[in-house]
Amino acid sequence: MSRRRTEKRRNIPADPLYKSIIVELFVRQIMRKGKKTLAYSIIYKSMFKIREITKEEPLIIIEQAILNVKPLLETRARRSRGSVKQIPIEVKPERGILLAIRWIKIAAQKNKGKPMFIALANELINASNNTGNAVRKKDETHKMAEANKTFIKRKY
């Protein structure tokens, strides 16, 4: 066990255009090989596309999508008596947001044949309407946790 102090989390600066931390988290998740400007252009184009399709503010759509995809429970693998069991645990709010962003990005990437900004815009709109692959992933995670709830260790 380390004797050092635990490192404090750094504050994430908001993105320059929308002044939103969630948009910055999306940019960091989409960024590959340090190309942040490309990630910004993908996000901003998809937000423009969201505004074009829904005639609503894209930040509201993104926040609604994250709320719909954010998991409350997840399972962690624990080894017990020679077998590996999936133990459900509660997800902290920050981790829930990051998981939601990651699942939305992965669902958009699986939509081949379209540019990333269009696929991301479509996935965000679907997630805000409680449909799409990212919401399906959340439902699968919750079903897995529900199926294994007998392994929860209760603290008395």
From TrEMBL:
<dbReference type="InterPro" id="IPR036823">
    <property type="entry name" value="Ribosomal_uS7_dom_sf"/>
</dbReference>
<dbReference type="InterPro" id="IPR020606">
    <property type="entry name" value="Ribosomal_uS7_CS"/>
</dbReference>
<keyword id="KW-0934">Plastid</keyword>
<dbReference type="InterPro" id="IPR000235">
    <property type="entry name" value="Ribosomal_uS7"/>
</dbReference>
<dbReference type="GO" id="GO:0006412">
    <property type="term" value="P:translation"/>
</dbReference>
<dbReference type="GO" id="GO:0003735">
    <property type="term" value="F:structural constituent of ribosome"/>
</dbReference>
<keyword id="KW-0699">rRNA-binding</keyword>
<keyword id="KW-0687">Ribonucleoprotein</keyword>
<keyword id="KW-0694">RNA-binding</keyword>
<comment type="similarity">
    <text>Belongs to the universal ribosomal protein uS7 family.</text>
</comment>
<protein>
    <recommendedName>
        <fullName>Ribosomal protein S7</fullName>
    </recommendedName>
</protein>
<keyword id="KW-0689">Ribosomal protein</keyword>
<dbReference type="Pfam" id="PF00177">
    <property type="entry name" value="Ribosomal_S7"/>
</dbReference>
<dbReference type="GO" id="GO:0015935">
    <property type="term" value="C:small ribosomal subunit"/>
</dbReference>
<dbReference type="GO" id="GO:0019843">
    <property type="term" value="F:rRNA binding"/>
</dbReference>
<dbReference type="InterPro" id="IPR005717">
    <property type="entry name" value="Ribosomal_uS7_bac/org-type"/>
</dbReference>
<dbReference type="InterPro" id="IPR023798">
    <property type="entry name" value="Ribosomal_uS7_dom"/>
</dbReference>
<feature type="domain" description="Small ribosomal subunit protein uS7">
    <location>
        <begin position="3"/>
        <end position="149"/>
    </location>
</feature>
